[in-house]
Structure formats: C-alpha cells, structure tokens
Design a protein that fits this description.
The structure holds 2 protein chains of 2 kinds.
Chain A lengths: L6 H25 L5 H23 L16 E9 L4 E7 L3 H17 L8 H20 L3 H22 L4 H29 L7 H9 L4 H4 L1 E3 L2 E2 H16 L8 H8 L2 H26 L1 H6 L1 H20 L4 H21 L12 H35 L10 H4 L1 H15 L6 H13 L3 H25 L18 H19 L2 H25 L39 H7 L2
Antiparallel strand pairs in A: 1-2, 3-4
Helix pairs in contact in A: 1-2, 1-4, 2-3, 2-4, 3-4, 3-11, 3-15, 4-5, 5-6, 6-9, 6-10, 7-11, 9-11, 10-14, 11-14, 11-15, 13-14, 13-19, 14-15, 14-18, 15-17, 15-18, 15-20, 15-21, 17-19, 17-20, 18-19
Chain B lengths: L2 H26 L8 H28 L17 E11 L2 E9 L1 H24 L7 E7 L5 E4 L3 H20 L3 H19 L6 H32 L4 H8 L16 H18 L8 H4 L5 H10 L1 H11 L6 H24 L3 H21 L3 H29 L15 H15 L2 E2 L8 E2 L1 H19 L5 H26 L6 H6 L5 H16 L11 H6 L10 E2 L8 E2 L2 H4 L2 H27 L5 H7 L1 H8 L4 H73 L6 H29 L1
Antiparallel strand pairs in B: 1-2, 3-4, 5-6, 7-8
Helix pairs in contact in B: 1-2, 1-4, 2-3, 2-4, 3-4, 3-10, 3-14, 3-19, 4-5, 5-6, 6-8, 8-11, 8-12, 10-14, 11-13, 11-14, 12-13, 12-17, 12-24, 13-14, 13-16, 13-17, 14-15, 14-16, 14-19, 15-17, 15-19, 16-17, 16-22, 17-22
The chains are: A mainly alpha, B mainly alpha.
C-alpha cells in the first residue's frame, strides 16, 4: 500500500498526507513523553515544516505523479472514495490553480506562525495540539471537493481557533473568542442549510462540489427551476445563504466586527493565521462554491456582491484611519483589502454587452486571487510586526510610539516594506491584486471602478500616518523604552521570508498568475457559457432586463472551456455598454 | 548587433545599475567604509556609468538616425521608436501586461538628462551631505529633556534612496506601456516620500512627506481612471498599440475615436492621465505639496523636485500627446496657465530661498503644460530639458548658500558674493537662464541666448500663435505667460540681490559663511555651462536638443488640430507656424521687454534700494496677504478634505462600535435574557410538573405498600386470581384473533 515506487500510491496519498499529517502530529503531541515546552514547540514546528515541504513539492511542476501541472485548468491529484454511502458522501479531494496557492499560503504561514509562537508559555502542549489541528482544518477546507467533507473541515477549523483565542488571548479574550465563534457559526449554519437544500434538490442526491456545479450550470437546472421560498429559487437561496456564510469569514461589511476584536485579543501567531489564511476561506468559498453552483443567483446579485466589496473597501479604510490601537488598525485594513477580493470575484462583465468577453472578468478574478495571496503575506507580516513591538513594550497605542527607526533599524526597514506592500506600492505584492481588480471592474461598472480606485488615497493616508506615528519622529513616547532592543535572529527569520515573498510577487506576479489563471479562466468561461446559453432561457421575475441577447444564442449549449471571445475592440459604444448592464 | 537590440541593451544596463547600487547599499550600506562613506561612491559610480551608457546609446542612435530636415521644409524627419518587451507580468486571454520599452529620441534625451544631472547632483551631495558621516545634532528638533536631538548620521541611506530614485525615474522614462509608467510613477513617488522625510525626526519633514505622497495619490486616482478607460476599451497599455489605434495610418495619423471607445471615453482617458500629471508635476490644484517638499535635503530638491521627477508629469503629457483631444489640450493649457501665474505671484513674497525656487519650479512646470496644451509639443518638452539644467543649478546654488549660512531665510543673508564668488556667478547664470536672457531676433538674425531664452520664447511664440488662431479668448494665455515671465524675472533677481548683493544683514552668519568645496562647486560649474548651452546646436551641424527632440514628435501632431466634438471652434495651431519669423520675433521682443522690466524692478527694489519693498507691501496689502498665505490653499484643503475625511472616519468607527456591535452584543444579550426566561419557565412549570409527577409516584408507592402484607395465603390467593384473569384474557384474545384470521 505504501509502496512509494508506485506513482499511483504517491498521487493518491499526497493530499491526504498533507491534510492529516498535522492532525496526527497533534495526537502524537498529546502523548509525547517529553517535558519542556521548547521541545513541544520544536516538534510542532517540524510538523508544519514537513507539511510545507510536501505542499511545495506538490506545487513544483516537475512532472512527477504528485506534482502540479501548471497550465492545466481542472482538478489534479484527485482522491475520490465513498465515505458514507447511504448519503452519497464521499472522501473527495483535489487540487487546482485556485486551491493550490491557498494551500501553499496556509502551509507557509503555518510554519512562520508556529515559529512566532516561541513566546507562548501557557499550556504549550495544548496550544501546539490546537494549532496543528487548526492547520488540518484549514488545509482540508481548501482541498475538500465534497461539500459535506468541506463542512466538516470548516467546523474542525473553528473549534481550535475558538480555544486559541479564548485561552491564549489578551484581556478580553473570552468576549472576542465567543464573538468570533458565534459569527462564524451563524454563517456555517446557514451554509449547512444551503448544503442540505442543494443535496435534496440534486438528482441523484450528491454532495460533490464538482457535480453540484455541473448540475447548477445545466440548462433546466433543478436549482433554478425549483422554487424554495418567497418566489425565489433554490439557487437564489443557496447562493445567499452560502454567500453570507463566506462573507462572515471574508469579512465583508456589515458582518465584519468580529474581526477587529478577534485580532486584538488573539496572540500574535494566531492573528497571523487568522488574517493570513482564515479570511481567504471566504473568498475561496465564493469562487469555488457560490458561483459555479448557483450561477443564476450570482448573475442576478452581481451588483450586490460588487457593491458590498466596494463598500467594504471604503468602509474598512475609513475605519482604519480612526483607530488608536495598532492591531485594530491592521485589522480594519484587512477589511478594506478583502473588499477588493469580493469586488474582483463579482465583476460579471462577460455579458451580451461585451460580446461575452471573458478577459476582464478573468482579470478581476485573478486579481482577487492575487489579492488574497498578497494580503496573506502583507497582513500576516503586519500582525507579526505589531507583535514584535508589543512583546517589547506591551502596548499598542498608536499615539505612544514614535522614533522606532533609530532604535530598531532592521525592524523599521522590514516594517516599511511590509506596510508599503499593504499600501499597494508597485514592486511589492499588494499592487497587482488591487490594480487588476480595479481595472477589471471598469467593464462591469464604471461607477464602482471609480469608487474602488479612490480607495488608493485613503489607504495611503492611513498607512503613511501609521508609519509616521510609529516609526518616525525624534523619540519613543511610550513606556518601557529600555525594552526596545533590535529584532532577534528568530524574528528576522520569520519576517524576512515574508519580505522576500512580497518582493517576489511584486516584481514577478506571473509566478502566481501562471498557477492561478487557467483555473480561474475555466471558472469564468463556464460562467460565460452559462450566461450566453442558459441565462436567456430563464424566464423568471427580474430576468427580462438582462436577457437582452440575440435569440440565436439561446439554447446553443456548448461547454467549451478555453473558448475565447473576440477582442474588446468589438465592443459597441460606451452608451450601449451601459445599457445592458444590470 | 543592430540598433534595435543594442540601444535597449544599453539603456537596460543604464537603468538597472542604480538598482544594483540600491540593493548593495541596502544590504551592506553601513559597512561600506567608515559610517558608510563608500556608499556615496557606489551610488555615484552607478549613475556615472549609467550616464556614459546613455550617451553611448544616444551616439548609436545619432549614428543611425542623423537628424534630417523634413521634406516639407518644416522641422525634422520623425524617426519611429524602438519598442519591445522584456518580460510579461500577467496575461488574461487577449490582455497582456508586460515590462517593455519604447525608445525614441525623447527617451534617449531624457536618459541623458536624468543621468547627467543626476551624476552632477550625486557628486555635489558628497560635500553637502558630508556632515551625515558622523553624529548629527539637529537644532530644529528638541527631545523631551530640552536638548537638541543628537542622532547617528545617515549618509548611506541618502545615497541608497537616491539610487532607488534614479532607477525608478529611468524606468519611468524607458517604460513601454502605460501600466509600467504607473508602476515607476508610484516608485518615484515613494522615493520622493522617503527623501522629503529624510530628516524624519522633524515633524514638518514627515508631514511634508505624507502630504507629497497623498496629494500625488489624489492625482494617481485620476490616472487610474484614465488607465481604466484605455484598458477597458482598447485592451492594451502598450504605447505603440494605443497610438496606432487612436491615430492609425489609415487616417493619416489624425486623431480618431477607435472602435470600442466613445469620444467621451477618449476625453476621460486624456483627462485621467493628465490628472496624474497634475499631481506629479504639482499643477494647480494639486500644487500644494511641492513647496512643503523642500523639507528634504537640497540635493533632493534639485534632483527630484526640480529637474526630474516633477518633470515626469510633463514628460507623460508629451508621451500621451497623440491621445489628447482638443478639449483635453485646452484643459491642460488652462491648468498650466493658472499654475504658472499663481505660483509666480507666491514666489514674489516668499523669503525662504528654497521656497522661492519651489514656487518658481511650479510656475515653470505650468509653462511647460501651457505650451503642450496650446499644441507646442516641442516648446513644452524643450523647456523641460532647459529647466532641468538651470533649475537644478539654482537649487544646488541655494544649497551651497544654505550650507554656508545655515539658514534658508534670505533676510538673514546678503552680500555673500564676496565670500562665495563661484556660487554667486553660477547662480546669476541660472537666473539669467530662467529669465530667458538673450538677444531677440534682430536685423534678420535669429534670436540667440541662454537655454531658457530658446525654450521660453518658443512657448511665447506658440501662445501668440494660439491667440491669433483663436481670436477672442486665445490671447489670454499669451498675456498670462507674458506677465508670468515678468514676475519670474523679478523674483529671480530679487532672490539673487537679497542673497548675494548689498551688505550682510546678519553679521554672525556672514562671518561664518565660506565658499563650498570643489565637490559642490564643480557640479555648479558644469550645470552652469549646461544652463547656457543646453538649447544650442553644435555649430554647423544638426546636433542639438531641438533637432533630436523633433525626431520624437508624435505622428500627426505637427499639423495641429481644428476643433473637437465639444469645442468645435478651438483651433490648436501647428507648431511649425510658430517659428515663422514674424510671429517668433514678436513673441521674443515681448518677453524680452517684460523680463527686462522685471529685472529693472528687482534692481530698483533690492539692488539699488531706490524703492522700499515695505512700502509696496503696505500699498498692496490685500494682494500681499493673498500671496504670502499662498492663496490660502493649505487652509482650504485642510478644512474641505482632511478634516472631513477624519470626521467621516470617526463616524465609521463609531458605527462599528455603537451600531453593528450594539446589534451583535444586543442580540447576544437578548439571547441571554431569553435563556434566563427559559430557565425560569423550566424551574416554575417544567420542573414543578416533573416534581409533581415524582411526588405522585411516591405517594402511589406509599399507597401500594399497604398491599405488601406478608401474609402468604393472601399472596397465593392474588396469584390464583391473577392467573385466572390472564387465562380469561388470553382466551378471549385468542378466539378473537382466530376469528379475525
């Protein structure tokens, strides 16, 4: 069974190994007969590092059986077994260009966050066990292709997080942990309802995400045909329920307020994971689940999705500007940055008005993916850097810093780079995601694009103001000035990889787009085919306006992936373009 | 190797060398010699080699494309660009984003100018920044114990940022597409931010850095909109492709609305891009950051905020010139016109020597914009180059003065020409150049003078031509530019007289003053020569800036344009007509006259002291106040924007706290209350029901206990009765079941 000479074995076990190695590590940790916290931490770090190496190996396009094949759009390394046959629940895992970068990000940040946990000295064994369990949950969410399995991992990730905040957090940790838990749980209950609704409306009943997507995109899909409640279809309700569940995680305004509290109270490494990985699950869920399974609701609600994204961007940036707590400011900047993700995903511009041109939506969605990775790097970095200074002076009051540049030059230099990455400076990772999302938005809605573009001013405002208050100035104004010693070697080892990644993706974004683009394009082309072929035939309330499509296009069902439209120069005038937009 | 690969290679090397220097200083800067002394040599070496490479590329270009007169007799033959790609950033279907190059003679000239001026300023900085080599006492910052701040020197940091800037600026110039321009646009912005805030311990410096970056971002907001308009409808950022689409060969390079675009969108694209330029080139209404940017060290002001970065906006307008409709051009001209006039008026009243120069820069940039907006492509671009030479010279001179006196305030100076002969003479040359000193066209001989004379008079000529082509409103631009020229001449000589002429006003500072070392005066002399000759052609040849730049003139723009969709009666005149002797001579003589008047006025006030400036101040008190307070722009923006944004952000934070969290916490509280009620119901009703049942059961048990008597005969009797009863029951049911079956 474990004959590694057999490539098939390697291929089928790879993903399971990646997911469950941390969980096994957690079990071993519980019974490991060692005393001494350092040893436990080292063990956990080793586990996360091995997982990281495995994911890197899976990502290298070396042509091996378990290696990722760049340029291929579909699922790779697929594992599919029956799990609970009576409900047709499967153990179904797979990897594609959308999940791979997020898996890599997860394993990468897990290593760094584990290493950043050296300062934890309370119940280390439990901490490490929860941490590893959390990693299993996160990796599972990104790799599961069975909805039930996805849900299980989603919940698995929730509980360790609750304890990690609630036990190892700051003074108001219990409030923050419960708030985090309840917000997310409310979302996941809605998700469960949606899962069951979809399950019972599919025929044959299935939990498979790929199968559900196929059903959802069919002409005559039962999801769009069957009415569920108040004149709305199954598809509409499923989309809304799933979307709320994911939007809590993202988080989108107005269900974002768990985030600042959770971040402020969580210990530094958990903040890194929370901002770096957990928020991405929202975006991932929307790309992977909401749109492919419920395209008609996505089409109908495109304006709501994009509107929420834009509101989050502006709202988060404004709220960040008013914060006095360093960590809260970074948390609100996350709200603002994740708004780009929502906006980029939602820009359904492949409509009749653009001759079904998918390029701009592909760009927007790829931009959103890029933004997720970039934000994973920059926000984890920012939280870590806040943690570094908090460890020394034990406060986060922005008005009582200043003058850190001369006292901690390396730290200040690294901070500048990471903060500039968050500001969206070209040459660093934050820029491309923002630029592509904004550029992609224009062909969907010019108004939203202009509002989204204006956020660059606010972002510059709060980031530069923060830098000025914390790093610049003649002298440090807060307590414990004597504790401001330069960064330790361990801290440098954690920060430098983040800086390197920020620069790498800033200078050569194609490194990421090569992985992301084919899968994103596949998703977008599927949506476009649906818009072109299925949408016009849907006779429903609220559809008459948008289905201004030549009748010849109706019923021409052709799911050709990679089919590309003519260049945008074929567009009609701008006025006509406006006219067909919802 | 042919020219199409050798020039890009040379320029790529010239471009990347400063980056290498930046990386080296970033990593090992503090260990480069004592206190990072060698970092200066590394950075300077990089830029000097870049300079040689740039001139080599220019030589290769000229060797292949010697400027020839065009067939029509107007101007020079246009030579197409060398363009290509280095690598791809991202591809989405038909959309491609690349790092590429678009090299024509304008690019080459910019490369040579940036690296040459950059090299001079690098060398100058050896002397100017040399106090950063050891611990510095900053008298402008007091620490909490009341003493002036002492800090470590940051010599290597300065050169590190300088190298990053040179890299970014060259990248901006070589960029082959608009997105790449935007990338480096932001990078020069961040360098500017870092260098303005070089003395970041000073609150004013870090504020100025923030202001510069944020105001630039406001411009960039517009820039992004312009980019979106282009990208969303043309699907490309590449300069070559954009120009081919808006001015195709089929329409003989006349501006058309390409497929997929509307005229409105073309205007939006043009205005958007121009908006970015307004921010970067400090044009009205985003000019407010540049004077504050003088908080940076003087070499920074010279390189970034006079010669190169602020000129990038003008450069980009020149680059995007083919895309601008007449409406956009008119907006550019209006903005330039307002800027040049307003900034010049502020410069009259400023007493900080660097601020005078800063406002002068704003004003001169306004001239360039005005020229471009009126259709004078060559005039505007030429002024960019000549201005780079004389303005960097002026800034370096002022730096030399500041270095000697330890103050920026001109009322503290005076009489310095005796102590600083080289500085005073080179600065005089700079003043003459910026005032446009020269001999106007006379007796059939063409006009001749300092570099500023040639460029400024082409602008005047274009303004005059525009005025005669557009009777009615057209002359406003010419008159504004003319008055501006007079004011320019006045404030420049005012500056020179106040600094160098007369008697010292502060003996202590005067006693302390001295001529700067050779590392500083050397670059001054080089730049002084440039300020004189920059616009000249090598006698007997066609080798000069004008012919070179003419080769890069955007196709189809030389003939001018008549009317747009919205403003049908605006004529953008052909630039070649501006050089007609009659027009040119009139323009030259007018500007000569006003410049002379400005000079004489300044001499009367500050040189000969026949007139008292205080009298003038009293007489024109309202105007003086307006100018002195910089037209109250800072106060206005502070009130209109900054305070409002801060207020809104406070509201937003409050909404989170008092509305959303109130709802969330409230629902949690309601849940707790409901659960308490539930608990109460449990205890009162459910529990009591259960308890009651239990009690009943208990009492039943008590009752039944009585049956347990211990009497065996009684038990047997009950047993018998029970058995009989069971039999009866079973029988009954059995029969019933049988019958049913």
């Amino acid at each position: 069974m474990f004959n590694l000479q057999n490539p098939e074995v390697l291929r089928t076990w790879m993903l399971s190994l990646i997911i469950f190695l941390p969980a096994v590590g957690a079990l071993v940790l519980c019974v490991l007969p060692v005393r001494g916290d350092q040893c436990l931490k080292r063990f956990s770090l080793l586990i996360t590092f091995v997982v990281f190496l495995l994911t890197v190996w899976a990502a290298i396009p070396a042509g091996g059986p378990a290696n990722f094949e760049v340029g291929k759009a579909g699922m790779q390394c697929v594992v599919q077994h029956e799990w609970i046959p009576s409900f047709n629940i499967q153990y179904y895992l797979g990897l594609d260009g959308i999940s791979l970068p997020l898996v890599l990000l997860t394993s990468f940040l897990s290593v760094l966050a584990m290493w950043a946990s050296w300062g934890i000295d309370k119940n280390v064994r439990a901490y490490c066990a929860f941490f590893l369990l959390l990693e299993t949950g996160m990796l599972g969410v990104f790799l599961a292709l069975d909805f039930f399995l996805f849900y299980v991992f989603w919940e698995v990730m929730l509980l360790p997080m609750y304890f990690l905040i609630g036990v190892w957090g700051g003074p108001r940790r219990e409030y923050a942990a419960i708030k985090f838990f309840l917000f997310t749980l409310a979302g996941s209950v809605l998700m469960l309802i949606a899962i069951l609704v979809l399950f019972y409306n599919s025929d044959p009943h299935t939990f498979s995400i790929t199968e559900l997507a196929r059903i959802g995109q069919m002409p005559d899909s039962p999801f769009s045909k069957n009415e569920l409640l108040w004149g709305r279809s199954v598809s509409w309700w499923a989309f809304v329920l799933l979307f709320i569940g994911f939007a809590v995680k993202l988080p989108s305004v107005p269900i974002h307020t768990w985030l600042p509290d959770a971040h402020v109270e969580a210990p530094t490494p958990i903040s890194m994971i929370l901002a770096g990985v957990l928020l991405k699950m929202g975006g991932y869920g929307i790309i992977r689940i909401c749109y492919p399974i419920c395209p008609d609701a996505g089409y109908e609600l495109a304006w709501w999705v994009c509107g929420l994204g834009t509101v989050s961007m502006v709202y988060g940036a404004l709220a960040a500007m008013a914060q006095k707590d360093f960590k809260r400011l970074v948390a609100y900047s996350s709200v603002s940055h994740m708004g780009y993700v929502l906006l980029g995903i939602g820009v359904w511009s492949a409509t009749a008005g653009t001759s079904y041109n998918t390029d701009y939506w592909t760009m927007g969605m790829s931009g959103a993916m890029f933004q997720m990775i970039a934000h994973g790097i920059s926000s984890a970095g920012m939280f870590f850097l806040v943690g570094v200074v908090y460890d020394r002076v034990h406060h986060r009051d922005l008005d009582r810093f200043g003058g850190l540049f001369p006292k901690m030059p390396v730290y200040a230099g690294i901070s500048m780079i990471i903060f500039f990455a968050a500001l969206g400076l070209p040459g660093l990772c934050g820029f491309w995601g923002e630029l592509f999302v904004v550029l992609g938005t224009w062909s969907f809605s010019k108004t939203l694009a202009v509002i989204a573009a204006s956020v660059v001013i606010l972002t510059a405002g709060y980031i530069l103001w923060t830098i000025q208050r914390v790093y610049l100035g003649p002298e440090y104004k807060g307590p414990h000035a004597e504790a401001l010693r330069p960064m330790s070697l361990r801290e440098k080892y954690i920060a430098v990889p983040l800086v390197v990644m920020a620069i790498l993706f800033g200078v050569y974004p194609k490194a990421l787009f090569d992985y992301v683009a084919p899968s994103v394009e596949k998703t977008v082309v599927e949506m476009k085919n649906w818009t072109e072929n299925v949408a016009p035939s849907l006779k429903k309330v609220g559809w008459d306006k948008r289905s201004a499509v030549p009748p010849s296009a109706v019923g021409n069902v052709e799911n050709v992936v990679g089919q590309r439209c003519a260049r945008p120069t074929l567009l009609a005038t701008a006025d006509e373009q406006e006219a067909v937009q919802p | 190797m042919d020219i199409n690969s050798i020039i890009p290679t040379l320029l790529a090397l010239a471009w990347l060398l400063p980056l290498a220097s930046f990386a080296a200083i970033l990593l090992v800067g503090p260990r480069m010699g004592r206190a990072g002394k060698y970092a200066g040599y590394v950075a300077t070496g990089a830029i000097v080699v870049s300079c040689f490479l740039s001139f080599a590329a220019l030589a290769v270009w000229l060797f292949n494309h010697y400027p020839h007169e065009a067939h029509g007799g107007h101007g020079y033959e246009i030579v197409g660009p060398i363009s290509g790609e280095w690598y791809s950033l991202a591809e989405f279907g038909g959309l491609r984003l690349t790092i590429g190059y678009y090299i024509d003679s304008l690019t080459l000239a910019m490369f040579c100018m940036v690296t040459l001026v950059g090299a001079c300023i690098h060398v100058y900085s050896f002397g100017y920044m040399h106090e950063e080599l050891h611990d510095v006492t900053d008298p402008l910052v007091t620490t909490s114990d009341g003493r002036p701040l002492r800090r470590k020197g940051r010599y290597h940091r300065f050169f590190q940022y300088f190298s990053l800037f040179c890299f970014s600026m060259l990248g901006l110039v070589v960029a082959g597409n608009a997105a790449m321009v935007f990338v480096f646009w932001e990078l020069v912005g961040i360098c500017s931010y870092l260098l303005i805030g070089f003395y970041h311990e000073r609150r004013s410096a870090s504020n100025a850095g923030n202001k510069a970056f944020i105001v630039n971002r406001v411009g960039d907001f517009g820039f992004i909109i312009g980019l979106m308009a282009l990208w969303g409808s043309l699907g490309t950022f590449s300069f070559g492709e954009i120009f081919n689409q808006v001015r195709p060969v089929a329409s003989e390079h006349h501006l058309i609305v390409p497929g997929g675009m509307s005229y409105w969108l073309l205007i939006v694209a043009g205005l958007g891009v121009f908006c970015g330029c307004v921010g970067k080139s400090a044009q009205f209404p985003l000019h407010v950051w540049l004077p504050d940017a003088m908080e940076g060290p003087t070499p920074v002001s010279a390189l970034i905020h006079a010669a190169t970065m602020v000129a990038a906006g003008v450069y980009l307008v020149g680059r995007f010139f083919p895309v601008f409709t007449p409406e956009v051009l008119l907006v550019i001209a209006i903005v330039g016109c307002i800027t040049l006039f307003m900034a010049a008026t502020i410069a009259i009243t400023a007493t900080d020597i660097k601020r005078v120069l800063a406002y002068s820069t704003v004003s001169q940039l306004g001239y360039m914009m005005l020229a471009l907006g009126l259709g004078g492509w060559l005039a505007g671009i030429l002024h960019l180059f000549t201005h780079a030479c004389f303005k960097s010279l002026l800034f370096l001179c002022s730096g030399s003065v500041i270095h000697a006196c330890g103050t920026n305030e001109m009322p503290e100076m005076g009489g310095l020409r005796r102590k600083m002969p080289i500085t005073s003479i080179t600065m005089l040359i700079g003043c003459l150049a910026i005032a446009g000193a020269g001999i106007p066209t006379m007796f059939g001989l063409p006009g001749f003078g300092f570099s500023g004379f040639h460029s400024k008079d082409s602008i005047m000529a274009q303004g005059l031509l525009f005025g005669s082509s557009n009777p009615g409103f057209g002359m406003i631009f010419f008159y504004a530019a003319l008055i501006g020229a007079g004011i320019t001449s006045f404030y420049m000589f005012r500056l020179w007289y106040m600094t160098f002429a007369g008697r010292p006003r502060n003996e202590q500072r005067y006693a302390h003053a001295h001529e700067s070392p050779l590392s500083m005066t050397g670059p001054l002399m080089v730049l002084a020569v440039l300020a004189i000759v920059a616009a000249w052609s090598l006698p007997g040849t066609e080798l000069g800036l004008k012919p070179l730049l003419e080769q890069a003139r955007p196709l189809g723009t030389a003939e001018g344009a008549a009317g747009g969709m919205l403003l049908a009666n605006v004529t953008v005149p052909s630039e070649h007509l501006a050089h007609e002797p009659a027009n040119a001579a009139r323009a030259e003589w007018s500007s000569f006259a006003v410049a002379l008047f400005g000079f004489l006025l300044a001499t009367a006030f500050y040189g000969l002291r026949k007139l008292d400036p205080a009298d003038a101040r009293r007489t024109f008190s309202p105007l003086y106040k307006l100018f002195y307070h910089k037209w109250w722009f800072d106060e206005l923006y502070g009130f209109l924007f900054i305070r409002q944004v801060l207020r809104i952000s406070d509201w937003v934070a409050a909404i989170d706290k008092y509305v959303i969290d109130y709802l969330a916490d409230g629902s949690a509280k309601v849940t707790v209350i409901v659960s308490r009620a539930d608990d109460w119901i449990d205890r009162i009703f459910v529990d009591s029901a259960v308890d009651l049942t239990a009690r009943w059961t208990y009492s039943l048990g008590i009752q039944l206990r009585r049956l347990q008597t211990g009497n065996v005969r009684q038990y047997v009797m009950w047993l018998a009765v029970g058995l009989v009863a069971m039999f009866v029951l079973v029988n009954l049911y059995w029969n019933y079941a049988m019958a049913g079956g």
